[in-house]
## 1
Amino acid sequence: MNFHTRKWVKPEDLNPNNNLFGGRLLQWIDEEAALYTMIQLDNRKIATKYISEVNFVSSAKQGDIVELGIQVEKFGTTSITLSCVARNKMTRKPILTIENITMVNLGEDGKAKAHGKTKLEYIKNRLNEED
């Protein structure tokens, strides 16, 4: 799993128990999944279709650095399924896990559209192919 994004837990991210608010973490994850999908499918028009059970394993406190890891689980015809782990950067202790996040590729009309991708691609390889 690749951990590309780090978030610093600030006072505005806390719940009344002074832990990271779960909704804030889910917001970060949804954004990360969207960005990852846009890059993989080479399309800015995507939508979150499904997020499986969210397993909150531990909490994060103010000042903690949270890393978000995303991994491709499978490519569908119009979708991509990802898994996610959020962990504490310093301790590597998991904070949250999600087994399936399904993101859908959209056409100009806003409807699901086949993307034609079947495997993970890296930008550096895509750029080399265009040269």
Note: The mean pLDDT is 93.
## 2
Amino acid sequence: MMKWLLVFATAVSLYAADPKAGVLSAMETWKQAVLKKDAAALDRLLHADLLYSHSDGRTETKADILKALPDMQSLTFGENSVRVYGNTALVKGTMDIVLKANLATTLKLSVLQVWLKGPKGWQLVARHSNRLP
């Protein structure tokens, strides 16, 4: 039993030491919070200085996002490239979003996200997206 506990503790510490894994975990938590419209979880994941640019040109703040949570049916990440520079991470990849209001439309996006690691863990501080053909 003690051996398995040691293996588990080692695995947890290695995961915590890998900043890319931490960022990807924060992205997955963000995805689940958006799909569940969990404002409390989003409040923890979104940085106070958030700039969230949509593919239609609108830019929103954290307060804007929390006031009008998106109504998504599904959100799928494509392949992502994660680059970590100290407490800052850039994530570039694709994302497919199906909105509940229009299940026939899938938004295919190219997205750049900027995550900052601070006392609250990894938080999204900037996002910019473009529609793909």
Note: The helical segments are 2-17, 19-36, 39-45, 62-67.
## 3
Amino acid sequence: MEEQVWISQSAAGDAHAFAHLVERYEKTVYHHALRLVGSREDAADVTQEVFWKAWRALPSFRKESSFSTWLYRLTDNACLDLLRREKKRRGDTSLETDEGLSLAQQLPHPAPSPQDHVEAQERQAALEQGLAQLSEEHRRILVLREISGLSYQEIGSILGLADGTVKSRLARARMALANYLRKTGNFFP
């Protein structure tokens, strides 16, 4: 209930109330953006852009979906815009950062032993490579479901799709990723 008050107050121009919303969702937006764009700096830029857009658009927020779903939609769109701009600018689709580290190398891999740590890194790298080979449509839907843990309804709301369409596209995305991993010898249960 407190969140609804913050949303209403923010829509009326209360910056203090909006600061509470930013505090609550900043990490979620950042991590979702990081998984989609692959660069910490770009994810930070996207996060800032998302909250700037949210602040400006809050008066017209119709509450047809939850605030978090709306933020996911804003984040997803901002990431797609950034990836398209970068793709045009660089002419490639890699998930390499400016430091030359892939997203898989940036993510922490807690493991009890060095061998487990190395195996987890190899699995993560294979997954990241597989995600990079998927279409934007398949990558987006997999990240929203498998990494962000959103429901079919939330994904449908973000992407503007019916639940059945979300399920079928998710199944095709999983199959495409599994096929890629099998083809490269990196399939793991």
Note: Confidence is low (pLDDT under 50) at residues 93-98, 107-112.
